[in-house]
Specification:
By secondary structure, the chain is of the alpha/beta class. It has 8 helices and 12 strands. Helix content is 35%, strand content 20%. β4 and β5 form a beta hairpin. α1 runs parallel beside α5 and α3 runs parallel beside α4.
Length: 257
Amino acid sequence: MIFYFSGTGNSKHVAQKLGELLGSQVKNIADYYEEVTTLKNFSIGVDKDDCLGFVSPVHSWGLSKTMSRFLKRTKINYQGKKIFAVMVCGDNCGKAREMLSETLKRNSGIECNFICSIQMPNNYIVMKGFGTDSDELAKQKLTTAELEIPKIAEAVKSGKTFDRYVIGTHPFLKGRIIYPLFMKFTMGDKKFFADDNCISCGLCEKTCPEKNISLKNGKPKWLGHCVKCLACIHRCPKKSIQYGDVTQEMGRYYYKN
């Protein structure tokens, strides 16, 4: 069983491809939102003959908030040997590997020593200095990823590891100092709004994995528990969702088959 979280579709694609190659069921952890956020003792059992995998985007050189919460609040019962994780990043991963490994061990008693990374197109556009990749670079990343996913699946099958994890420079600074600050101070959604191009299609409400958007008088309203996955802003068909004065000239990206 492969558990994934995805805002713009990158991690979803990686998880689904691995699921096909490994013959394993793929589960979106957003589907467990109610259980994870309301139950004190939530557990999931995975057959020992299946693999156990996790695919998560990297947010600010660390583990995405939704995946971190899932691992902290879910007891995973698994007695098998095929355990792996894939960190999906735009550039590098910092301490995301350690965060996943430590949390999984602490809450479920499971050792995950096979953790690799895959680069996919950048999509963090709500802070100045960041942005989407050029079309050429995005295509290059996608092409490389399609070659690497089968290698990861083969490594899982054979019990080996896929020795590729792009840690980047200054991992301690990014993962242990910047990441906590990012999680504490940037998760707010007060700067999101829909401009006059909004057609009230409701796609933002449907695609929000955190159930953090509702339509009021045909316009999206953010409810205060955003995790900055940016599904809403990238999936809007009219590019009408904006974040402060940062995104008006920014590109948009989500994975398209």
